[in-house]
Amino acid sequence: MTASPDLDIPQLAAPDLLRSVFRRHAAGVAVITARGSGPVGFTATSLTSVSAEPPMISFGIGTGASSWPAISRAEYVGVHVLGEHQEELAATFARSGADRFGAPTRWFEGPHGVPVLDGVLAWLVCRVVARVPAGDHRLVLAEAVVGDPAGAGRPLLYHQGRFNALRD
Q1: What is the pTM for the complete model shown?
Q2: Cα R_g (the chain), whole angstroms
Q3: CB distance 82 to 30 below 8 Å
Q4: 82, 87, 138, 144: which is deepest, by most CB within 10 A?
Q5: What distance in Å separates the CA atoms of residue 109 and residue 72, rounded to the nearest whole number?
Q6: Residue 1 pLDDT greater than 60, yes or no
Q7: Does the N-terminal peptide bond of residue 54 adopt cis geometry, omega within 30 degrees of 0?
């Protein structure tokens, strides 16, 4: 099949095109945490299950993000799947300059010193195995070590630039 000759298809997509396309892609919302000089964390919609054997996940983080220096050195990270009741928590961890671990955020020091958020749908502590350069981001690959999948509720989603809940 060939493209219609009257279509002007660019060879490379501009950042705005990518953003526009992915605004239409619904994604689960997670918070990634680590221990730096103190607890650090950020909201991520790029969380992906990579492998069952070994149990491995990935997520992306911009190299200009305030959490990047700690993530770039962390041996372990926390991965938290947020529930639809945690929209404000997601917004706090997405907001630049916010006191992400101050009240009302509830958290505790988990395995390997990783900050673990309380009340999430599920969490993992993962050992970082690689940080792969990917444009202005790094793709972090991490192997799950311990976690808890037993939180109550339904997942928080991100779609069209805002947080959403599942509909029946």
Answers
A1: 0.90
A2: 17
A3: yes
A4: 82
A5: 20
A6: no
A7: yes
Give yes or no for a cis peptide into 155 (omega within 30° of 0).
Answer: no
- The predicted-structure confidence for 46-88, as pLDDT tens digits, reads as follows 999 999 999 999 999 999 999 999 999 999 999 999 999 999 9
Structure tokens at 78: 């926390």
Confidence class for position 168, pLDDT limits 50, 70, 90? confident
- What is the DSSP secondary-structure string of the chain? ----TT----SS--HHHHHHHHHTS-EE-EEEEEESSSEEEEEES--EEEETTTTEEEEEEETTSTTHHHHHH-SEEEEEEPBGGGHHHHHHHHSTT--TTSTT--EEE-GGG-EEETT-SEEEEEEEEEEEEETTEEEEEEEEEEEE----S-BEEEETTEEEE---
Distance CA 10, CA 114 (A): 44
Q: Integer distance in angstroms from the first to the last C-alpha of the chain? A: 39
Encoding tokens for residue 83? 């529930």
Q: 């650090």: which residue's tokens?
A: 40
Structure tokens at 125: 């502590």
Q: Are 104 and 60 in contact (CB under 8 A)?
A: no
Amino acid at 122: A
The confidence band for 5, taking pLDDT boundaries of 50, 70 and 90, is low
